[in-house]
Amino acid sequence: xxxxxxxxxxxxxxxxxxxxxxxxxxxxxxxxxxxxxxxxxxxxxxxxxxxxxxxxxxxxxxxxxxxxxxxxxxxxxxxxxxxxxxxxxxxxxxxxxxxxxxxxxxxxxxxxxxxxxxxxxxxxxxxxxxxxxxxxxxxxxxxxxxxxxxxxxxxxxxxxxxxxxxxxxxxxxxxxxxxxxxxxxxxxxxxxxxxxxxxxxxxxxxxxxxxxxxxxxxxxxxxxxxxxxxxxxxxxxxxxxxxxxxxxxxxxxxxxxxxxxxxxxxxxxxxxxxxxxxxxxxxxxxxxxxxxxxxxxxxxxxxxxxxxxxxxx
Length: 313
Ligand code: 8YV
What we know:
The protein is α/β, with parallel strands linked by helices. The protein has 2 domains: 4-96 and 285-303, NAD(P)-binding Rossmann-like Domain (Rossmann fold), CATH 3.40.50; 100-276, Rossmann fold (3-Layer(aba) Sandwich). It is 34% helix and 15% strand. It has 11 helices and 12 strands. The chain has a 7-stranded parallel sheet with strand order 8-7-6-9-10-11-12. It has a 5-stranded parallel sheet with strand order 2-1-3-4-5. The chain is elongated and about 70 Å long. Bound molecules: 2-keto-D-gluconic acid. 2-keto-D-gluconic acid (8YV) is lined by residues 10, 51-52, 73-76, 99, 279, 282. 2-keto-D-gluconic acid binds next to loops. Belongs to the D-isomer specific 2-hydroxyacid dehydrogenase family. Pfam families: 2-Hacid_dh, 2-Hacid_dh_C. This is Glycerate dehydrogenase. Keywords: NAD, NADP, Oxidoreductase.
């Protein structure tokens, strides 16, 4: 009798052990492996603890007749088909807020690293080029410049708050105008991109935001433009982004997310003006621990018949 299904090869052994210590659990590495569990085992499963980005939809849910909860590890639950879940009376939870600081930190970190050419600077020192008497070419001032945030949710706001301390002129686009200090609202992304040097994407993933930052918006950013993406690879026209970086029609990018992670488009590897990160926005010991705890708290609440902490549907 295993009321919990731990689903995802992405769980560390420590995370898995903590879930198993709390609840009797089965394990599947991926949604398409759930069918390998016996029918009797599947019938005992009431909750899934999910981690990863492999689609989880009706085909898997229908193998688990008593499933009442899918608890996602992560704020973004675009891998889970919430429509399928709701239609079956299955609740979905995520792990919002606990990762806002880290994701905002890495967005700002990539902005500084890109502007100040820090990755090349490190290589410059190690290779002895500096010792040989050559100075790194001058780079670009970030403080005091203009930034456009695409998506002013909890993470977008934390990024904007940080950048306000960098004396930046803050613009944003969201579905509707929000209450802000003195930030400028734009009804569409092209208008936003036209107005700023840095475009930071902080959207939710999923179908509705696919290629939300279009080729036209990337072009509108112009030759001083820098794209920062900490959301999902799907939220920008990635092909257009690669072309713009290769052709130098924008100045650069800082990217923590890509399509087809981790086997990303190999053209990225040669783009010298892009800083590339391995989807590590929430990847600190402290935050991953908080995410795991919130996921477990949702699972425990469901199994005890109590209110969920962070419901999605
Ligand atoms: C991942 C994330 O969930 O929270 C999110 O939406 O993108 C990350 O924190 C994490 O990589 C685990 O898959």
